[in-house]
Structures are given as structure tokens and as C-alpha cells.
């Protein structure tokens, strides 16, 4: 006999995955013709209570309570000067209270959207933010993009004695609460053994739904598109000098045993094969290539300059790309044919066809597109170092720099 809430959890995994919004839009025939139309569609999607079933919340509460690990000690994060700098990451070891202090310091700093330091709670073998060089993940980081507050989750974490740091994001407003929660892992997640990237994404999906239910979040809950093993995170900088410092909460305590949590809950259906970041060595990547890469939907390079991708409408196909199958030539990005270096998209499935660039970008995660645009700014520079090179771009003056002293 299955435990109460098991069916609801399996349903929630699918109903809140990274393709859920595209299914929602397609099922209702919503035209995403401009930013306002996309915002309206997103608001309608986020109004759904997909994680509120009492049986689901109870199952998740029991699973998390059974996955409390040992007391937290030191944790490692790697910091880069800027999103455009994927080489020369510096690892820092923090006490848990020290990491909270670092976030409190960042929260007083000012940086426009997309500027300033980035960090990832990972260990690399050479400081490069590439899948091949990511060895271990030390912290579970979940991102709430306006789907609810942290109040309910914070009460649960404190009651269970789980260590956590939560901080408001740079774009936080009372009307659109954007925030993150960081929870230390009992055992660093190994991404070297087997297909560690895909295994991490599956574990992340389980944790995302469990904690989203405990937080009583609406819509998809925590963002499903931040499941890449080396996802880059911006600290909670203020966007402008007049803005108040972002709020940071801290509680000490115990770690999360992610293996025990995933064992206690239904496993997610594997998504199309996780893709790795590509090393752009000969040509400057197009905007679409970068956007699909940031969204973890970019596949291998094909002939004639084409790139295989996972179609943003994959779940709407009559025969969706099967579990753990790499993208094929059925959905591709064509190389750009103008100095704008944008590219073009085509999907052979009858329901898709030749979607416009605007339609494609509207279906990709907003943060992925934003990061792609930041990287794309430098695509016209022949000396640009995209991934792992030695020539680094100069940064705007006055932005936060790497910490020189640990709290």
C-alpha cells in the first residue's frame, strides 16, 4: 500500500517541472506576443495551487523530518568576479554563520541586474564553471521567483533544527517576493561518478517539490530551471542606492541528508538528457545558442553549423523526447545570417515548425535569456573568452569584488 500523498507527489513533480509553463500556455492557446502577454500568462500559471494538497504537505514534512543529518560544519562555495567570467573561480570555506555574514555583506552592496559577483556552492578541479570540472555540490539552493513568502518554510526548518540561510533577491518587492534558501548537505553531492549531472537534477526536482510544498508556494513553487549542477547565483545585491538592504535570515543546526530525502519520496521521471556547457573555441555563439545553453537545453553541434536542442515545447509534441535521450536533429538552431548574431530555431514536429525568435525566447526561463543576453554582448569581440580562456573582460568600475577576508 502506497503512503498517502505519494500520488499527489508524483503528480506535482510533473505539474511543476520546467516544461509545465509551456504546457499551460499551449493547452490554453495563449499568444505570447509581447512581454505583457507573457507576464499575464505567467501570473495565471503562478496562481495555481499545485503544491497545496494536505496529503502532499504531510508526506513532504515526514520525508524532510527523516532526512535531518549531522550538525553543520564548514561549507565551500566558489566565487567568480562576474557572470561572463567562467574561469578563475576562487573557492572559499565558510562556517555556516560566516556564509550568512557574507550574504549580509552582499545585501548592503549595490549592483545593477546581472552585474557583480556570482557564486556556486560547488568544488571544481580548476576554477572553471563547466560541467566537466564540477566535482561536488555542498549546498541545496532553491529559488523562489514571486510564488510566495518564506514564512511557512522558515517555521518548518527552525522546528526541525535544519540549518538554513534565506535572503531576498535583488529584484525583491513586497508584491513580488523573490528570495532564496540555502540548506547545507550532509554529504557533498558527487557529480563525478556516472552521470552525476542527471542524477543531481533528479534529486533537485525531488527536493524542490518537497520544500515548495512545505513553503506553501503557488504555481511551480521553487524555480525548476535552476537545477544545473553548477548553476550560478547572484547574491542579493540592491539594484540601486536608494533601495533598502536585502533581508537575510540565518539559523544554525543540522544538515540535510539528500540521499535519505530522495529515497523517501517518489523518483521523478527523467527529463531529456542533461546537456553540458559547450566550450566555444572557434566562433562566437549566437544568442539562441547561449539562451538554450543557459536553460540546459542545448545539445551537440551538428554539421553546417547547426546545434541540436531540446524543444521548449517538447512536452506538447505527439511523441515527446523520451527520458534521458539526447537532443536530435528534429529540433535545431540554425547559425545566424546577420551581424546581429541571433540564429534561428526550427522544430520538425507539426505542432511547432518555424517558431520566431521572440516566441522561442518567451518560452525559455527569463533568467536564462537574461544571462544569455549578458554573454551575447561580447559575441562580436574576436578575443572574447567565453569559457575557460585566459583573456578576461574588464568589469565596470564600482561593482562588488571578491571578498578579501572571510567573516
Structural class: alpha+beta
Helical stretch count?
A: 11
**Number of DSSP E strands:** 14
Distance linking N and C termini:
50 Å
Percent of sequence in beta strands: 15-25%
> How large is the radius of gyration?
20 Å
> Taking all residues together, what is the mean pLDDT?
85
Helical amount among residues, as a percent range? 25-40%
Low-confidence stretches: 378-395
Q: SSE string, helix = H, strand = E?
A: HHHHEEEHEEEHEEHEEHHEEEEHH
What's the domain count?
Answer: 2
- What oligomerization state is this entry in? single chain
Gross geometry: globular
Largest sheet: 5 strands, antiparallel
Strands across the major sheet, in which order?
5-6-8-7-9
List keywords for this structure.
14 strands; globular; 407 residues; alpha+beta; 5-stranded antiparallel beta sheet; 4-stranded antiparallel beta sheet
Account of the 3D structure:
- This protein has helices spanning 6-15, 20-28, 35-46, 54-65, 96-108, 151-160, 196-214, 258-264, 287-294, 357-363, 366-376; strands at 68-71, 75-80, 90-94, 118-120, 122-124, 134-145, 164-168, 178-190, 248-251, 254-256, 298-301, 307-309, 331-334, 344-347.
- The chain is of the alpha+beta class.
- The protein folds into 2 domains: 51-264, no CATH class; 287-318 and 326-376, no CATH class.
- A 5-stranded antiparallel beta sheet has the order 5-6-8-7-9, sandwiched between helices.
- It is globular, with a radius of gyration of 20 Å.
Amino acid at each position: 500500500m502506497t503512503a498517502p500523498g505519494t500520488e499527489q507527489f508524483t503528480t506535482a513533480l510533473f505539474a511543476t517541472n520546467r516544461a509545465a509553463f509551456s504546457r499551460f500556455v499551449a493547452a490554453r492557446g495563449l499568444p505570447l506576443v509581447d512581454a505583457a502577454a507573457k507576464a499575464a500568462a505567467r501570473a495565471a500559471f503562478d496562481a495555481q495551487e499545485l503544491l497545496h494538497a494536505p496529503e502532499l504537505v504531510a508526506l513532504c514534512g515526514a520525508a524532510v523530518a527523516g532526512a535531518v543529518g549531522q550538525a553543520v560544519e564548514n561549507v565551500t562555495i566558489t566565487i567568480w568576479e562576474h557572470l561572463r567570467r567562467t574561469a578563475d573561480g576562487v573557492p572559499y570555506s565558510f562556517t555556516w554563520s560566516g556564509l550568512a555574514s557574507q550574504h549580509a555583506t552582499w545585501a548592503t552592496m549595490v549592483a545593477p541586474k546581472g552585474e557583480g559577483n556570482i557564486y556556486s556552492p560547488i568544488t571544481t578541479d580548476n576554477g572553471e564553471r563547466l560541467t566537466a570540472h564540477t566535482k561536488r555540490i555542498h549546498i541545496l539552493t532553491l529559488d523562489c521567483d514571486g510564488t510566495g513568502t518564506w514564512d511557512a518554510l522558515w517555521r518548518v526548518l527552525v522546528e526541525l533544527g535544519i540549518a538554513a540561510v534565506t535572503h531576498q533577491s535583488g529584484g525583491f518587492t513586497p508584491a513580488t517576493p523573490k528570495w532564496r534558501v540555502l540548506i547545507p548537505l550532509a554529504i557533498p553531492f558527487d557529480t563525478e561518478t556516472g552521470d552525476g549531472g542527471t542524477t543531481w537534477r533528479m534529486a533537485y526536482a525531488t527536493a524542490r517539490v518537497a520544500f515548495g510544498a512545505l513553503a506553501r508556494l503557488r504555481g511551480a513553487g521553487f524555480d525548476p530551471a535552476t537545477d544545473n549542477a553548477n548553476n550560478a547565483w547572484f547574491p542579493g545585491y540592491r539594484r540601486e542606492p536608494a533601495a533598502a538592504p536585502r533581508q537575510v535570515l540565518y539559523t544554525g543546526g543540522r544538515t540535510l541528508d539528500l540521499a535519505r530525502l530522495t529515497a523517501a519520496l517518489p523518483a521523478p521521471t527523467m527529463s531529456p538528457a542533461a546537456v553540458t556547457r559547450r566550450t566555444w573555441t572557434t566562433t562566437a555563439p549566437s544568442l539562441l545558442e547561449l539562451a538554450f545553453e543557459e536553460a540546459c537545453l542545448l545539445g551537440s553541434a551538428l554539421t553546417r553549423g547547426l546545434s541540436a536542442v531540446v524543444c521548449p515545447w517538447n512536452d506538447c509534441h505527439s511523441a515527446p523526447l523520451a527520458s534521458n535521450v539526447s537532443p536530435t536533429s528534429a529540433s535545431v538552431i540554425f547559425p545566424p545570417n546577420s551581424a546581429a548574431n541571433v540564429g534561428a530555431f526550427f522544430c520538425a514536429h507539426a505542432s511547432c515548425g518555424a517558431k520566431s525568435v521572440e516566441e522561442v525566447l518567451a518560452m525559455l526561463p527569463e533568467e536564462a535569456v537574461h544571462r544569455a543576453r549578458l554573454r551575447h554582448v561580447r559575441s562580436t569581440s574576436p578575443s572574447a573568452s567565453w569559457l575557460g580562456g585566459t583573456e578576461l573582460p574588464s568589469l565596470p568600475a564600482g561593482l562588488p569584488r571578491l571578498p578579501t577576508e572571510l567573516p
